[in-house]
Design brief:
The complex is a heterotrimer of chains A (about 100), B (about 500) and C (about 475).
Chain A lengths: L4 H10 L6 H18 L23 E2 L9 H5 L5 E2 L2 E5 L4
Antiparallel strand pairs in A: 2-3
Chain B lengths: L1 H4 L3 H10 L4 H14 L6 E4 L1 H16 L10 E5 L26 H8 L3 E6 L39 H8 L5 E6 L5 H7 L2 E4 L19 E6 L2 H11 L29 E5 L9 H16 L3 E5 L4 H19 L17 H12 L2 H14 L5 H21 L5 E5 L15 H5 L6 H6 L3 E8 L5 E8 L4 H15 L11
Parallel strand pairs in B: 2-3, 2-4, 7-8, 7-9
Antiparallel strand pairs in B: 1-3, 4-6, 5-6, 5-10, 9-11, 10-11
Chain C lengths: L4 E3 L2 E14 L36 E2 H13 L7 E2 L1 E5 L9 E5 L8 E6 L5 E13 L3 E3 L6 E5 L6 E7 L6 H18 L11 E10 L9 E6 L2 H20 L8 E5 L4 E4 L12 E2 L6 E2 L2 H8 L6 H12 L3 H8 L2 H11 L4 H19 L10 H12 L5 H14 L3 H8 L7 H14 L1 H8 L6 H11 L6 H13 L1
Parallel strand pairs in C: 13-14
Antiparallel strand pairs in C: 1-2, 2-11, 2-12, 4-17, 5-6, 5-16, 7-8, 8-11, 9-10, 12-13, 14-15
Helix pairs in contact in C: 2-3, 5-6, 7-8, 7-9, 9-10, 12-14, 12-15, 14-15
Classes of the chains: A alpha+beta (about 100), B alpha/beta (about 500), C alpha+beta (about 475).
């Protein structure tokens, strides 16, 4: 499977990573190499094989419904690059 | 002084309990060693004051006859573990200035056992790498040098390369690592250490910055198998904050050491014999087989037919999970923000500047394999292959108690090598990834030197939650190998 | 077929499917121990998990699972013993993880069916496609600063159930009845408080149009509609828009739209090029949810009598019309109130009083039944006085007003104000005699064959008795005297 420049641009947008136009060609080549290498997986017969969802053979633990956390705004916002009046702030979202 | 730094965890612990060694003196020596070892770039952040405070606490507790399993033991903590009030970077620019307001369960367990944290160990960015070349804080240097090129800096392996270099250079008595595809075991092999990845679910992942959630597992890097047993015992345990942490009692791993292997069957999988593998790796493997045979174990040839697919499957699963796990680094709540006129630009600028090349590569691959139209062919197929890999091991456990392989296909290589060929770099993990994909416990034990005088490791894989058997066999290997070579750089 | 919409070129059928997002009643969030209480200061109900700090991990709230299962049972739906949480990946500032933990291929609840009650008394089945659990996002405030949006994560991680209907509805009325029924069921079982104003329930509305009998048309999804009134309006506007486009020879683009109640129109949400590539995959931080059948059976025991069961019983036991029964059972509290009033009394009379007099009052003053100024027992007391002829139905209305004002019980008001019905024949005859004597013209009219004038006489007698005379006796005695 080979990835072209347009695909690189598309997945870079999906992943929200700016990839300048001049870097796309090289990146397309690198990613195509990796994908070409993983392509060998298609050789494996996986008919009727369930996909692994967890290596742990256990039942999902559940929490009691009780308020045991939160209530510490400072611990949550102290590392924020930008905040005001207890909110996180970001460049205005236009909807 | 040098003698003090050569003590093992077990020796130091016993000496401190007896009152023959003062924790403050011992930790003080290590704080100096951390400074001496700075050229290796093994630490991102040094925390001498915290270490000394911890040592004083240990001293007081020991004086009263109290204390935990690791009183006065100076450790390095991989910078993937969130440590309260101490910069935690994952080796990435994107976590600039991030000081967690919480302590990871594993580092918290170690501190509660009395350990003194010397600092945060350098690592490949977000644990993505096998050479410790991808850290925003610069590469880490292996304290070992090759005989034929003593001026050439070598890599310590990765991603826990800072942890490995620190312990090997005597700038920490032990260190935490995390292992997603070999990130504890491969650096242990490259630096002449013991490194163990326990069973997935044995150590809590809470507070460990995630790379690939279904694979990440914390473990120790130490100089001896006994030290690994001691340290793992303090790290492990059920954590109700991690849904994938398993609620099983933690055995006394140290008690599993000693005795022979006469009742044990060791599997040797033919699929690990690769074309073009250096002869010295094959030779070491044969040596390991002979040692275990001599010690009374029964050697059984086995087949793990899907071994060759483990690495490509890993390079779908791990990037896919990473692409999602790393979405939270968006410049909103912590770490780096690079402004932009719009929200989208802010995201794209922040993540373009904050992530290094290898991280970007994997996030993009991961995004691609999960995207519409490709999910079934890549991600789903990889998870099915993973089921087959786990089944291979399940069948093997009907015949054997553990599997012996080499840890890595080569000894440490020079900084800068393989950097322009991602796949060549990925192949470092070819022997370690299958156990990761199946969630199994595995250990690397230093077993000999390459022709160039560099350490090589042997690798044991065990049954789920049977770390005891793995440690027991590793201890036998360790004794047979009698590995006592020292790196060219020692901090004291 | 009454639901067809007229276009320029003929009739159109509207096809509607709904996705209702209902906040699950629970003290803590789906994957963290932070509080879900409404209206707190920004970011004060946020745990490290909700803020997606590095290394944080989710652990599922057992109450969320239980509520989803109970809801599935109440929707007559399949409870799937194995379900999987999956990540839905997209970037948005109020989505701190960069993904929403939801359920995708393996939801906890599969297909089911409910019955909706229409205004004309008819009912109709509507299919349930699935129900799944998911995390709510935080809140972005865009009006606090000229160039910045403010982010509050208090809602981030609150448990939502998404209930997806089949495209079985054909009009705004049916959609409204569906939402009302879902809300009613959720409130009965205590799985959601149904409060649309506080955002506890909101709906995504899928609308398409087609010629009757033809294949389904292209649908548009109107996101996040937060009242039943707006759902109705949005459907009507959207259907009209689509019909106009098709009748003008155009095609419908499948897209997400927003309803703007101020302008009374739906408009396209800015479509991002990647808006729909969510890259779902099973969340590796969580194990699959595997339930025991015994757990499901145990939860079944906790379900109360549900609205449809109650409605059937009200029709059978009390002889109510289907419409009256459906109105009375819509809220559990109302149904209980009614039953208290109706027990041991004329159930139809009780229904009339509860539905017309009491509901009229409560609705006008916007009071919940739980806060009714007249208790069920007190209303029963009033009905008893009508039943034993102590007061007439007309006087009863005055007494009821007095009860609402003063909170006193009916008997006390009747006693105090001397409103007891006059049933003494002699007293009534006295009044009748006076009126007949004073109005010879009207008497002559009656005797001349205009029997309608008797109504006028009744009115005069009632007036003279201040409404207290027993109307039946008045009628009887009047006719006897006039015919004499």
């Amino acid at each position: 499977m080979s990835i072209d420049k347009a695909t690189v641009a598309k997945i870079a947008t999906l992943a929200r990573i700016k990839v300048p136009e001049e870097d796309r060609e090289a990146l397309a080549g690198e990613l195509s190499n990796i994908l070409g290498w993983v392509e060998q997986l298609s050789e494996v017969d996986t008919d009727n094989v369930p996909p692994m969802t967890s290596v742990v053979d256990a039942v999902a633990p559940k929490r009691k419904d009780a308020v045991t956390d939160g209530g510490y705004r400072d611990r949550v916002t102290v590392n924020a690059p930008a905040a005001a009046k207890g909110f996180f702030t970001v460049p205005k979202v236009v909807e | 002084m040098a003698g003090m730094l050569d003590l093992t965890i077990a020796d130091a612990r016993d000496a401190m309990r007896k009152g023959d060694l003062a924790p403050t003196e011992f930790v003080g020596a290590y704080i100096k060693a951390v400074e001496t070892a700075r050229p290796l770039n093994a630490y991102v952040t040094e925390t001498p004051d915290r270490a000394m405070d911890a040592a004083k606490g240990s001293e007081a507790r020991l004086a009263k006859g109290e204390g935990g399993a690791l009183e006065g033991i100076p450790l390095g903590i991989k910078d993937l573990f969130c440590t309260e009030g101490v910069l935690s970077t994952a080796g990435s620019h994107i976590l600039d200035g991030f000081e967690p307001t919480y302590e990871s369960t594993v580092s918290g367990n170690l501190l509660a056992a009395g350990a003194a944290m010397l600092g945060k160990c350098n690592m490949d960015e977000f644990a993505m790498g096998s050479a410790n070349m991808t850290s925003y804080y610069g590469p880490v240097e292996n304290p070992w040098r090759a005989l034929d090129a003593p001026d050439k800096k070598l890599v310590p392996g990765g991603s826990s390369g800072g942890s490995a270099a620190a312990v090997a250079a005597r700038a920490a008595l032990g260190a935490t690592g995390t292992d997603t595809g070999g990130s504890i075991r491969q650096p242990a092999a490259f630096t002449g250490l013991v490194g163990m990845k326990p069973t997935y679910g044995r150590c809590s992942r809470w507070g460990v910055i995630a790379f690939a959630s279904s694979l990440d597992q914390a473990g120790p890097l130490t100089r001896t198998v006994r030290d690994t047993a001691i340290m793992l015992g303090a790290m492990a345990g059920h954590d109700s904050k991690d849904s994938t942490s398993v609620d099983l009692p933690v055995p006394d791993y140290e008690a599993a050491l000693g005795g022979d292997v006469r009742n044990l069957k060791i599997g040797v999988p033919k699929e690990y014999r690769l074309d073009g593998m250096p002869a010295e790796i094959e030779t070491l493997w044969q040596l390991g087989i002979a040692w275990l045979k001599d010690a009374g174990a029964q050697i059984v040839d086995i087949s793990l037919p899907h071994t060759k697919y483990a690495l490509p499957a890993y390079y779908i699963v791990a990037p896919a999970e990473a692409s999602s796990n790393l979405a939270r680094y968006d410049g909103v709540r912590f770490g780096l923000r690079v402004d932009g006129d719009t929200l989208q630009e802010m995201y794209e600028n922040t993540r373009a500047e904050g992530f290094g090349d290898e991280v970007k590569r994997r996030v993009l691959i991961g995004t691609y394999v999960l995207s519409a139209g490709y999910y079934d062919a890549y991600y789903l197929q990889a998870q099915k292959v993973r089921t087959r890999i786990a089944d291979d091991f399940r069948k093997a456990w009907e015949k054997v108690d553990a599997v012996l392989t080499p840890t890595a296909p080569s000894a440490a290589f020079a900084q800068g090598e393989k950097m322009d060929d991602p796949i060549a770099m990925y192949l470092n993990d070819i022997f370690t990834v299958p156990a990761s994909m199946a969630g199994l416990p595995a250990i690397s034990v230093p077993a000999g030197l390459s022709a160039q005088g560099l350490p090589l490791g042997l690798h044991l894989i065990g049954k789920p939650f049977d770390e005891e058997t793995v440690l027991h066999i590793a201890n036998v290997l360790e004794q047979a190998a009698g590995f006592d070579a020292e790196p060219s750089f020692l901090a004291g | 077929m009454a639901s067809l919409m007229k276009g320029r070129t003929g009739d159109w059928e509207i096809v509607i499917g709904l996705e209702i997002h209902a906040q699950v009643t629970a003290d803590a969030k789906l994957f963290s121990g932070a509080s879900t209480a409404f209206g707190a200061e920004p970011n004060t109900q946020v745990s490290l998990v909700d803020a997606a700090m590095p290394g944080m991990l989710p652990v599922v709230n057992e109450r969320s699972i239980e509520q989803a299962v109970r809801t599935g049972l109440a929707l007559n739906a399949e409870v799937r013993l194995h379900s999987v949480f999956a990540r839905k990946n997209y970037f948005y500032p109020d989505l701190p993880q960069g993904y929403q933990i939801s359920q995708y291929e393996e939801p906890i609840i599969g297909e089911g069916e409910i019955v909706i009650d229409l205004p004309d008394g008819d009912s109709k089945p509507v299919g349930i496609e699935r129900l799944h659990l998911e995390q709510d996002a935080g809140k972005s405030l865009h009006d606090q600063h000229p160039s910045q949006s403010y982010i509050d994560l208090n809602r981030s991680g609150v448990t939502l159930m998404e209930i997806v209907s089949k495209p079985d509805m054909r009009s705004a009325d049916e959609a409204a009845a569906y939402i009302e029924k879902i809300r009613s069921i959720l409130r009965y079982i205590g799985a959601c408080d149904g409060n649309m104003q506080e955002g506890s329930m909101r709906a995504d509305v899928n609308v398409s149009v087609r010629r009757p009998g033809e294949a389904l048309g292209t649908r548009c999804e109107i996101k996040n509609v937060n009242s039943i009134r707006f759902v109705r309006q949005a459907i009507d506007h959207e259907a009209a828009r689509q019909i106009e486009i098709i009748e003008d020879g155009g095609e419908i683009d499948q897209e997400t739209r927003l309803y703007d109640p101020d302008r009374g129109e739906t408009r396209s949400m800015r479509t991002k090029e990647d808006a729909h590539d969510y890259r779902y995959f099973p969340d590796p931080d969580l194990l699959p949810v595997d339930l025991e059948q015994s757990f499901v059976d145990r939860l079944k025991q906790t379900l109360p009598e549900l609205p449809d069961q109650k409605k059937a019983r009200f029709i059978d036991d009390y002889g109510l019309s289907p419409y009256d029964a459906s109105v009375l059972v819509a809220e559990r509290e109302t149904a209980e109130f009614y039953e208290t009033v109706a027990t041991g009394r004329d159930p139809k009379l009780a229904a009339n009083w509860v539905m017309s007099e009491l509901f009229g009052r409560l609705n006008k003053a916007d009071i919940a039944i739980a806060d009714s100024p007249v208790s069920a027992e007190a209303l029963g007391g009033l009905i008893d006085l009508i039943a034993d002829d102590t007061i007439s139905g007309r006087i009863a209305k005055d007494v009821f007003n007095e009860m609402v004002e003063t909170g006193k019980d009916a008997a006390a008001i009747v006693e105090e104000k001397g409103l007891k019905q006059i049933t003494d024949t002699g007293a009534i005859e006295g009044i009748i005699d006076t009126i007949i004597a004073e109005n010879p013209d009207n008497v002559a009219q009656y005797q001349g064959g205009n029997t309608k004038v008797v109504g006028w006489f009744v009115g005069q007698v009632m007036k003279a008795s201040q409404g207290k005379a027993n109307p039946k006796l008045v009628n009887e005695l009047l006719r006897k005297k006039l015919d004499a």
